[in-house]
Design a protein that fits this description.
alpha/beta, Rossmann fold, Arc Repressor Mutant, subunit A, four-stranded antiparallel sheet, 38% helix, phosphoprotein, DNA-binding, DNA-binding response OmpR family regulator, Sig_transdc_resp-reg_receiver
């Protein structure tokens, strides 16, 4: 995949994938006016071809695509490396939202949606996906080694394939061990939102456990605190 130089001054390269030309045109127009370089695709195969030719910085991906649906497109995109994905769904069913998050989407927006809100979501995810200034050095605990500036994480020496939000969640836990956080607090601190669907936090915690726990069904690092939320407890892991 061709990748833009890291010092590119232009806005991010965003791939919009939607079979509804009206929706695609509106989303593209708003993102273009926000300063981003936008490409469009009307179905899954075209989206994968465009992503292979020019790796996007973020993908806005409709769930209900003809033939190859958005879930499969998301899986295949992530097979070629991490790329932030915001899923669009015309249905409000929680199962659809959870499925999108489970396959690696960083966020979702339910149709009908405000284009301005979508632009804000895009910029929020992009902001967190970009390398941060090296201010606090490496984070280490329980066999985990995380470099926030490089956005790299390993567990017992093996590289972890984390989405943008999973990485941010892990960094937050490493920086704040031993305290129980409500899902509302995690959404505010990690996602930067004062409101939203709390199942987003639940799914991301579950996915993160699958990558950092010896036995995700019996988590020892990211513990559930019933009636409160979650607590990172590195004392039960290896240093």
């Amino acid at each position: 995949m061709e990748q833009r130089p890291p010092d590119a001054e232009a806005g991010a390269r965003v791939l919009v994938v939607d079979d509804d030309p009206t929706v695609a045109e509106i989303v593209t127009g708003y993102l273009d006016r926000a300063g981003h370089l936008v490409e469009r695709a009307g179905d899954g195969p075209e989206a994968l071809a465009r992503a292979a030719a020019h790796r996007p910085d973020l993908v806005v991906l409709d769930l209900m695509l003809p033939g190859m649906d958005g879930l499969e497109v998301c899986r295949r995109l992530r097979d070629h490396g991490p790329v932030p994905v915001i899923m669009l769904t015309a249905r409000g069913d929680e199962d659809d939202r959870v499925l999108g998050l489970e396959v690696g989407a960083d966020d979702y927006v339910t149709k009908p949606f405000s284009p301005r809100e979508l632009v804000l979501r895009v910029e929020s995810v992009l902001r967190r996906a970009r390398p941060a200034p090296a201010v606090s050095g490496l984070l280490r605990a329980a066999g985990l080694r995380v470099d926030p500036a490089a956005r790299r994480a390993t567990r017992n020496g093996a590289e972890l394939a984390l989405t943008v939000r999973e990485f941010d969640l892990l960094v937050f836990f490493l920086r704040n061990p031993g305290r129980a956080y409500a899902r509302e607090e995690l959404m505010r601190e990690v996602w930067g939102w004062d409101f939203g669907d709390l199942s987003t936090v639940t799914v991301h915690v579950r996915r993160l456990r699958g990558k950092v726990e010896d036995d995700p069904a019996r988590p020892r690092l990211i513990r559930t605190v019933w009636g409160v939320g979650y607590r990172f407890d590195p004392s039960d892991g290896r240093e």
